[in-house]
Amino acid sequence: MQRGLFANPAENAREPLTEGAVLLHGYANPRQDGLLAAVQEVSAAAPFRNMITPGGQRMSVAMTNCGDAGWFSDRRGYRYDPIDPTTAQPWPPMPDLFLNLATCAAAEAGFDAFRPDVCLINRYEPGTRLSLHQDKDERDFGAPIVSVSLGLPAVFLWGGLTRGDRPRRIRLESGDVVVWGGPARLVYHGIAPLADGDHPLTGRVRLNLTFRKAL
Ligand code: MD6
Ligand code: FE
């Protein structure tokens, strides 16, 4: 692992959210251009698409994946599938830069030897939101999730272990990384409707990468 790609965050750049969750402000900044190029490479092979929920709603967030499997939703339910149902091909492999970032960020947060097998990539346009949910389709909740934000800022809604817990609002900027595991692994969370803006990296778009150990 090339640790030098991502420097140790300064103490004031590390914001604990609750036990098991930490926000590493600007942790991905040194490699934002490379991360964006890798997203473009993945989405050239596995295009962004608006998936359908089991209830029949079209999700406003556009999604794609890379890695050994991808998260997918349609009328039949939510699941991880090694084949992209849209292209009928395997999902593109996880770029080395992605793997490096996820492993280093997890180690910074105290989760050693995190080896994600899936990266779900979300693309938000102004007005797009992601309603409160738990990430619970993975096989092993012992592994954390690493979440990387690029482009337009967003308000991360960060609730509790039951849907009714009133969420805190946390601003996520381009380059911010949230690591999420242990007692926080099943916290309800979401993204408030994205405000319009124009970001030098991505234009009128926010991208989010979530790395998981799904299989
Ligand atoms: C997003 N993130 O930030 C959506 N899930 O666009 C997530 O749904 C998420 O950021 C689990 C852990 C961290 C996350
Ligand atoms: Fe999530």
Descriptive report:
- With 215 residues, the protein is mostly beta strands.
- It has one domain (14-212): Alpha-ketoglutarate-dependent dioxygenase AlkB-like (Jelly Rolls).
- The protein has two helices and 15 strands.
- It has helices spanning 32-45, 96-108, and strands spanning 14-18, 21-24, 62-67, 70-74, 77-81, 83-84, 89-90, 118-124, 130-133, 145-151, 154-158, 168-172, 177-180, 189-191, 206-212.
- Strands 1-2-13-10-15-8-3 form a seven-stranded antiparallel β-sheet, with helices on one face. It has a four-stranded antiparallel β-sheet with strand order 9-14-11-12, with no helix packed on it.
- β6 and β7 form a beta hairpin.
- Residues 122, 130, 135, 145, 147, 156, 178, 180, 189, 191, 208, 210 line the site of N-[(3-hydroxypyridin-2-yl)carbonyl]glycine.
